[in-house]
């Protein structure tokens, strides 16, 4: 439905994008988290693609963090794969998912207050920095290979 949201009219399209996007984004977000990260950085084909498209994992992480920290209000920052297999970082407002733009989401950071406020209060930057410690890179790699 999300890939073809433009086929719906008016309020139905809005509901599909908002509600469907919220479900998809949250499911992926929780799938890529792990209580103990299996690797400090991506590996395999995903690691190679990050190095190709960003220069290094450290440069990717810096660019991703900068994008996430600039999101105003509620939304997400995503690592996505485009139709040619190249990686990009995109921000989306509210519950918009990159699927509706023809992109394949790989790594979402949920930047809504409900994701961090109970533990971090208004320290969203600290939340963003700490998310890197619990990324399940095997799952992100699996998404990349699809």
TrEMBL record:
Keywords: Metal-binding, Oxidoreductase. GO terms for molecular function: metal ion binding; superoxide dismutase activity. Its EC number is 1.15.1.1. The keyword Metal-binding applies. InterPro entries: Mn/Fe_SOD, Mn/Fe_SOD_BS, Mn/Fe_SOD_C, Mn/Fe_SOD_N_sf, SOD_C_sf. It is an enzyme of class 1 (oxidoreductase). Residues 42-142 form the Manganese/iron superoxide dismutase C-terminal domain. SUPFAM superfamilies: Fe,Mn superoxide dismutase (SOD), C-terminal domain (SSF54719), Fe,Mn superoxide dismutase (SOD), N-terminal domain (SSF46609). GO terms for cellular component: cytoplasm. Gene3D superfamilies: Fe,Mn superoxide dismutase (SOD) domain, Iron/manganese superoxide dismutase, C-terminal domain. Pfam families: Sod_Fe_C (PF02777). Belongs to the iron/manganese superoxide dismutase family. This is superoxide dismutase. The gene is sodA_19.
